[in-house]
């Protein structure tokens, strides 16, 4: 086993020291040591990829699509993405010059931030938010400006955004990252809310990086893309991971103005060259012939959501009713006197239920925990039984 040479111990990207490892995966690993734990941890659909999508991927292998695809992705997939965005949301993107197929939404987020910021530039992130956003900004030498929005039902509003831009200095801010429906809270923005935010950003030298990977998983509302109100400043990020249970296929995409895409494609070439061929053919099939695939999964997720929200509120864990994704974000009872990491560890040890501490998701998150309901309803019911007993026992201890 080679040890790193002493002469190399300080040869590193110093910004990587400012970020940690993926804590969601670390907690998932930690909770695995408790036998019988119901893990409501990972943000991944529990359904199989639709059969017709799998067959399209398999056929591409059998048809010997074994060489590099075009850098931005196969023409037919980019056309399918363009058609999907137009038919679903009335958005118009040229498949040749305004769309890049990426290795998941993860690469799309990285490319978007990397293409915009220089060292010291600031990026506004409403929190609680998926931790990858702030970590990416830090790793690239930028400064994440976390804005705690827990006091506004987990949403950024125009006045708060205006105040943050003024306090941080407009010239220092290069982007705002939005994610809706949200991980971890499940909140979504409606037409009026995004128009309100757009009115603050319009005309400023600020991008909106909008991660809409959960756009097909909305309940009781209609998803409204940010690009529908401010296309000239929006970098739209999406993919098929959540909508079609294709997380392992790693297909996302960027849709944005051509001048941005042209520059970003340079970095895409140096990081991944192109996405995997078979996965691209599967994604194309999903977007061409699988637009109805999410309908049934949405119904199942909604049933799980409705069950969890009621039960958690009844147990004394205040829980906002999420409008999308597959997460709930309950509040830890104040009388417990525990921060989110202590609470999550105690719940796993004493009740064999694994949840993610809210502190992982940035400012404002430490009073909360995240439950992924991308698990069967029977598991959720058993988890609630265990949480109920845990709560009763803990309250007895505190009495």
From TrEMBL:
Residues 37-387 form the Aminotransferase class I/classII large domain. Its EC number is 2.6.1.-. Pfam families: Aminotran_1_2. InterPro entries: Aminotransferase_I/II_large (IPR004839), AspAT/PAT-like (IPR050596), NHTrfase_class1_PyrdxlP-BS (IPR004838), PyrdxlP-dep_Trfase (IPR015424), PyrdxlP-dep_Trfase_major (IPR015421), PyrdxlP-dep_Trfase_small (IPR015422). It comes from the Bacteria. GO terms for molecular function: pyridoxal phosphate binding; transaminase activity. PROSITE patterns: AA_TRANSFER_CLASS_1. Keywords: Aminotransferase, Pyridoxal phosphate, Transferase. Belongs to the class-I pyridoxal-phosphate-dependent aminotransferase family. This is Aminotransferase. It comes from Companilactobacillus versmoldensis DSM 14857 = KCTC 3814.
